[in-house]
Amino acid sequence: MKIDSGTTAWMLTATALVLLMTPGLAFFYGGMTRAKSVLNMMMMSFVAIITVSITWVLYGHSLTFSDNPMSWLNNFVGGFEHFGLQSLVDTATKDDGTGMPSLIFSAFQLTFAIITVALISGAIADRAKFGAWVLFTVVWATLVYFPVAHWVWGTGWLNTLGIEDFAGGTVVHINAGAAALALALVLGKRQGWRKEPMRPHNLTLVLLGAGLLWFGWFGFNAGSELAVDGTAALAFMNTQIATAAAAGAWLLVEKMRDGHATTLGVASGAVAGLVAITPACGFVDPWAAIVIGLLAGVACAYAVGLKYKFDYDDSLDVVGVHMVGGLVGAVALGFLARYPFLEQQNEGLFYGGGFTQLGLQVLGPVAVGVYSFVVTWVIAKIIDKVMGFRIPAEEEVTGVDITTHAETGYDLGTVHASGVTSANGSVAPAAKKVDA
């Protein structure tokens, strides 16, 4: 099939937008940590770009989108038809009628795998060995992300049953949220948790990161249509409106509960809305997107407090925002799905679809969440036994940036000046050393 230049140009753009989300996540997470671990937190996102990119090209795409020659096994994992992507290089375009090069589709899907792995890191801020994290990214992508993506977006069992996940509410966010919970439990709580203040050290970075995530998410959601059409436009608009509604709902909860509407709240609320609309963005009307956003903003604003009730240290609220937000969006689709531009067999309960799709929208998140939690727990336990997953207590107190990377995010030790000329031409003495 001849290459469609319009679709190809859009998918190149969407792929770049989704890749930008991972550096955006690095800013978002980095600002939420304490100053002594900001660089390590950001490095955890950047190293995911390295490791997942390589594993995806070698075998990740193949395990996700190939058909396994053993039909019974194909329900759970793909085969090695596209090992090394050479077959995609030799195939000019996908055979699905979109007219895009096969490599563009693969690159687009790669960016989803990257950010899913990076999302997990927020649960273990301040206390993970960098080498252990690097190994974890490879093993987790191989044993969890690639199979789950095959279940839902490949030819696996959930896809066969008819689950809907337009852009990754289940594959990305519930998957990462469940893994984050398991990893937080294996590594344990930070030194001084609930006894010392562990507030975000730089809310400016948090807002910058949230803005980049919001911007990149249009590629994430609208790009998942893999075409330039009405559904892509619907996904684009729904992404915007649900995010705005969720951010507003979170601020309202804060104001009513705490008396203050905060910058951390608006950033977290926006991300919650982005997460929740992801599975449904191409399948619901704009009014329904507002409902989903409002539900997500309220639910996630309260869900982030679950870690105090159940005593687990999810450092940057990955569980409360991504797992809960993804669940809100996935289940809401079972009620509100209308498919205005698509012909689908099962619409939502409110549109006469009965309980069939609703049941699938509950089954998918539960199955993925349980699988991700259990396998992540096993992976983390093995890594912990083999090489240790957590840094020593004294290094944690000192700060993982300086002990692991020999760097600091902010050089505040001295202030230097060679002299300042005053208005009358005299030179003021140089500034003295100031200890931070």
TrEMBL record:
<feature type="transmembrane region" description="Helical">
    <location>
        <begin position="132"/>
        <end position="154"/>
    </location>
</feature>
<feature type="transmembrane region" description="Helical">
    <location>
        <begin position="38"/>
        <end position="59"/>
    </location>
</feature>
<feature type="transmembrane region" description="Helical">
    <location>
        <begin position="200"/>
        <end position="220"/>
    </location>
</feature>
<feature type="transmembrane region" description="Helical">
    <location>
        <begin position="260"/>
        <end position="280"/>
    </location>
</feature>
<dbReference type="InterPro" id="IPR024041">
    <property type="entry name" value="NH4_transpt_AmtB-like_dom"/>
</dbReference>
<feature type="transmembrane region" description="Helical">
    <location>
        <begin position="12"/>
        <end position="31"/>
    </location>
</feature>
<dbReference type="GO" id="GO:0008519">
    <property type="term" value="F:ammonium channel activity"/>
</dbReference>
<keyword id="KW-1003">Cell membrane</keyword>
<feature type="transmembrane region" description="Helical">
    <location>
        <begin position="318"/>
        <end position="338"/>
    </location>
</feature>
<keyword id="KW-1133">Transmembrane helix</keyword>
<protein>
    <recommendedName>
        <fullName>Ammonium transporter</fullName>
    </recommendedName>
</protein>
<keyword id="KW-0813">Transport</keyword>
<dbReference type="Pfam" id="PF00909">
    <property type="entry name" value="Ammonium_transp"/>
</dbReference>
<keyword id="KW-0924">Ammonia transport</keyword>
<dbReference type="InterPro" id="IPR018047">
    <property type="entry name" value="Ammonium_transpt_CS"/>
</dbReference>
<comment type="subunit">
    <text>Homotrimer.</text>
</comment>
<dbReference type="InterPro" id="IPR029020">
    <property type="entry name" value="Ammonium/urea_transptr"/>
</dbReference>
<feature type="transmembrane region" description="Helical">
    <location>
        <begin position="358"/>
        <end position="380"/>
    </location>
</feature>
<comment type="function">
    <text>Involved in the uptake of ammonium/ammonia (NH(4)(+)/NH(3)).</text>
</comment>
<dbReference type="InterPro" id="IPR001905">
    <property type="entry name" value="Ammonium_transpt"/>
</dbReference>
<feature type="transmembrane region" description="Helical">
    <location>
        <begin position="232"/>
        <end position="253"/>
    </location>
</feature>
<feature type="transmembrane region" description="Helical">
    <location>
        <begin position="286"/>
        <end position="306"/>
    </location>
</feature>
<dbReference type="GO" id="GO:0005886">
    <property type="term" value="C:plasma membrane"/>
</dbReference>
<keyword id="KW-0812">Transmembrane</keyword>
<feature type="transmembrane region" description="Helical">
    <location>
        <begin position="166"/>
        <end position="188"/>
    </location>
</feature>
<keyword id="KW-0472">Membrane</keyword>
<comment type="similarity">
    <text>Belongs to the ammonia transporter channel (TC 1.A.11.2) family.</text>
</comment>
<feature type="transmembrane region" description="Helical">
    <location>
        <begin position="103"/>
        <end position="125"/>
    </location>
</feature>
<feature type="domain" description="Ammonium transporter AmtB-like">
    <location>
        <begin position="9"/>
        <end position="410"/>
    </location>
</feature>
